[in-house]
Recover the amino acids of this structure.
C-alpha cells in the first residue's frame, strides 16, 4: 500500500487503518486500474475513490444520482480539508463560471456531477481538457435494466469509456445481484478480474418482519425504543405517507413527508430538515432515500411490502451507516402481496421482465415467511452467506411451526365452495361459522365448509391465508376487489395432499411500562451518556452556525469515542478515530473545552 494512501487516511479522515478490502481497492486504483466495488452501505465505499482521487495527479470525477447527496458529500469533504465541489443545474451563473475556472486551474481534488448534467452539450468536451485522476460512478446499479433503481441517463455513461479510455474507471454500489453485476461490468468495460465483492452483510442492523395487525400501534410500539433518534418510515402511497406523517406529528414526533406528489421546494426543505436534524422521522415513498448520506439513521420501518429484496436491502441499508446498532421493521399482509402482484401484471414491461419481477416478489415473500435466520435468507439471495446471526427476530425468538396441510385443505375448499370470488375476511368468517347477514344472504351458512375452522381464531386464519398466497397456492383477483381463487399449484396440493409446514403468528405483546433504550443508546455506557449528549449539543450548535448537517462535523461514533477517551490535549484528541487534521484544527478547542468543563479524563467513572 503506498504510504501516501495511509497518510491521507490518517491526516484527512482520522483513521489509522483501512477496513476489509479497502486497502486492496485503493492500491489497485492508485496503480491505474479499473475497479467494480460491491460493498455494503456503511462499509466505506466513498473512501475507495476519494483517497485515490486525492493521491493521483489531477481531479477525480464522481457521477452521483442526487443533488442533495452530492451537497452532503462535498460539505463533508470540505470539512476534512479536501478541495471538492459539485457541478449541477442549480448553480448560479457566476458560481458556475468560477467552478469552471477552478477546474481549468487544477484547483479541485474531486468534482461531483449528476449524469444528466454530465451528458449536457459541451460538458464532456470541457472536462476532456482537464486532467482526470479517475472516474467513479456511484450507485452503479442504476445503469442496469435489471437494477431496482434503473435510470436511463446512467445507461448512457458508457460514453465515458470512449471519451476517457486511459482514465481509471470505478463503478460502486451496495446492491447488485449477479445479473446486475454482469451488466455493469460489460457496459462499462470493466474486467471480471477488477471486481471487488466485499459481501452484503450489515451485522449492526437488526431485522424484523411481522404481520400487519394494527400497523399504527405496532409502529408506535417500535418507535418507543427510538426516542430522540432519526429514522425513515416507508409507505407505498403518497396519501398514506401524508396521513402517517400527520398522525406521527399528532403523537408528538417531529415527522415530515416526502413523495413525488409534493412541490419540489417543499420536498427539498423537508430533506434538508431531515439531514440537519437529530430526532427527525421522514415518512416517505421510495422517491426518498437513494444515496442518503445521513449516518445516524437509527431505524427504518416499512408499513407496506417493498418491491423486491434488492429494494428492501437498499432501503433498510439507510440505517446505521455509522456502524452503531440500528433496527429495520417491516409490516405486511395479504393485501400487500396482491397489490405488488397487480403492479407487475398491469405494467407495460415485456413478459421476460414480468417473469423476473414475479421471481423477485417470490423471493421477498420467502424472506418474509421464513422460519430460519432472516440474514441467512437475505444474504443467500445475493450469493453471500453467514451463520445464524442472533440479530434478527427469527433468531431471537424462533417461530413455532405446524403441519398446516389440513388447515390449507379447509381454506382451499372454502374458497372453492363460495365461488372463488370473495376476499380474505369473508372466507375467514365462513370458516369460523360467523353469524352475519351477508353469509346468510349468499346461502354460505349451508355449505359444508361453514364453521369447519373453529380450531383456529381469525388471526390464525389470516396468517394461514397470507402464507397460502405467498406460496402461490391461492391467487388474488388483481383487477377486482381482492377475491381469492385456487391457483394451479393449489389444485395440485388438493390432489396430492403433501405435508405443509406453516408459521404460527407470533403472540401479541403486552405493552411494557418501562421503555427500553435502543441498541444504539445502550452502546454508549451510562457513565459516558451525559458527556456524549453535551458533545452532541456542541456539534449541533456548530453545525447550525455553518448551515451543514451535524454529522459532517463528527459522526456519533466519533463523539462516543471522545466521551469514552476524554482527551485533555490536542495530541490526545488526534488519537480518536474520525478526527483528521483539518477538523482537529477547526474544532479541537471547542470539543476539548466541553470535555474539560465536564471534568476531563476519568470524570464520573
Amino acid at each position: 500500500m503506498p504510504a501516501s494512501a495511509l497518510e491521507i487516511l490518517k491526516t484527512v479522515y482520522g483513521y489509522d487503518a483501512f477496513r476489509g478490502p479497502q486497502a486492496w481497492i485503493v492500491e489497485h486504483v492508485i496503480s491505474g486500474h479499473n475497479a467494480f466495488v460491491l460493498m455494503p452501505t456503511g462499509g466505506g465505499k466513498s473512501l475507495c475513490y476519494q483517497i485515490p482521487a486525492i493521491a493521483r495527479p489531477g481531479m477525480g470525477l464522481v457521477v452521483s444520482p442526487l443533488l442533495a447527496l452530492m451537497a452532503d458529500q462535498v460539505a463533508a469533504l470540505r470539512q476534512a480539508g479536501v478541495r471538492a465541489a459539485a457541478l449541477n443545474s442549480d448553480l448560479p451563473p457566476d458560481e458556475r463560471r468560477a467552478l469552471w475556472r477552478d477546474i481549468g486551474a487544477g484547483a479541485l481534488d474531486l468534482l461531483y456531477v449528476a449524469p444528466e448534467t454530465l451528458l449536457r452539450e459541451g460538458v464532456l468536451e470541457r472536462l476532456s481538457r482537464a486532467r482526470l485522476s479517475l472516474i467513479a460512478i456511484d450507485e452503479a446499479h442504476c445503469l442496469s435494466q435489471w437494477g431496482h433503481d434503473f435510470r436511463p441517463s446512467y445507461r448512457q455513461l458508457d460514453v465515458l469509456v470512449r471519451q476517457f479510455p486511459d482514465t481509471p474507471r470505478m463503478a460502486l454500489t451496495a446492491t447488485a445481484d449477479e445479473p446486475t453485476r454482469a451488466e455493469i461490468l460489460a457496459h462499462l468495460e470493466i474486467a471480471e478480474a477488477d471486481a471487488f465483492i466485499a459481501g452484503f452483510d450489515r451485522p449492526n442492523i437488526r431485522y424484523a418482519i411481522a404481520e400487519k395487525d394494527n400497523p399504527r400501534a405496532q409502529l408506535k410500539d417500535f418507535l418507543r425504543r427510538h426516542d430522540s433518534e432519526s429514522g425513515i418510515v416507508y409507505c407505498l402511497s403518497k396519501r398514506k405517507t401524508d396521513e402517517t406523517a400527520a398522525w406521527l406529528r399528532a403523537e408528538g414526533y417531529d415527522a415530515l413527508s416526502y413523495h413525488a406528489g409534493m412541490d419540489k421546494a417543499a420536498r427539498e426543505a423537508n430533506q434538508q430538515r431531515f439531514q440537519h436534524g437529530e430526532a427527525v422521522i421522514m415518512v416517505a415513498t421510495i422517491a426518498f432515500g437513494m444515496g442518503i448520506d445521513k449516518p445516524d439513521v437509527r431505524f427504518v420501518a416499512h408499513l407496506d411490502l417493498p418491491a423486491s429484496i434488492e429494494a428492501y436491502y437498499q432501503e433498510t441499508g439507510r440505517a446505521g451507516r455509522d456502524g452503531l446498532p440500528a433496527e429495520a421493521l417491516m409490516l405486511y399482509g395479504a393485501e400487500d402481496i396482491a397489490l405488488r402482484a397487480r403492479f407487475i401484471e398491469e405494467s407495460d414491461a415485456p413478459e421476460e421482465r414480468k417473469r423476473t419481477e414475479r421471481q423477485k416478489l417470490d423471493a421477498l415473500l420467502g424472506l418474509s415467511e421464513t422460519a430460519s435466520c432472516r440474514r441467512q435468507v437475505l444474504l443467500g439471495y445475493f450469493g453471500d452467506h453467514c451463520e445464524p446471526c442472533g440479530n434478527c427476530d427469527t433468531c431471537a425468538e424462533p417461530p413455532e411451526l405446524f403441519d398446516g396441510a389440513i388447515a390449507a385443505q379447509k381454506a382451499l375448499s372454502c374458497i372453492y365452495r363460495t365461488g372463488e370470488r370473495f376476499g380474505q375476511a369473508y372466507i375467514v368468517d365462513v370458516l369460523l361459522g360467523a353469524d352475519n347477514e351477508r353469509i346468510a344472504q349468499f346461502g354460505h351458512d349451508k355449505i359444508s365448509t361453514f364453521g369447519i375452522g373453529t380450531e383456529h381464531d381469525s388471526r390464525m386464519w389470516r396468517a394461514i391465508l397470507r402464507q397460502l398466497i405467498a406460496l402461490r397456492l391461492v391467487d388474488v383477483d388483481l383487477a377486482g376487489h381482492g377475491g381469492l381463487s385456487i391457483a394451479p399449484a393449489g389444485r395440485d396440493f388438493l390432489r396430492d395432499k403433501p405435508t405443509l409446514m406453516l408459521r404460527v403468528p407470533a403472540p401479541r405483546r403486552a405493552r411494557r411500562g418501562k421503555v427500553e433504550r435502543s441498541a444504539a443508546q445502550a452502546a454508549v455506557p451510562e457513565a459516558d451518556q451525559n458527556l456524549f449528549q453535551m458533545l452532541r449539543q456542541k456539534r449541533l450548535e456548530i453545525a447550525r452556525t455553518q448551515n451543514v448537517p451535524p454529522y459532517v462535523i463528527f459522526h456519533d461514533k466519533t463523539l462516543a469515542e471522545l466521551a469514552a477517551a476524554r482527551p485533555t490535549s490536542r495530541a490526545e484528541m488526534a488519537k480518536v478515530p474520525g478526527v483528521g487534521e483539518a477538523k482537529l484544527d477547526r474544532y479541537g478547542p471547542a470539543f476539548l473545552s466541553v470535555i474539560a468543563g465536564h471534568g476531563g479524563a476519568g470524570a464520573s467513572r
Remarks:
- The CA atoms of residues 128 and 163 lie 8 Å apart.
- The longest strand covers residues 205-211.
- The chain has four domains: 3-197, 205-332+370-396, 401-503, 524-598.
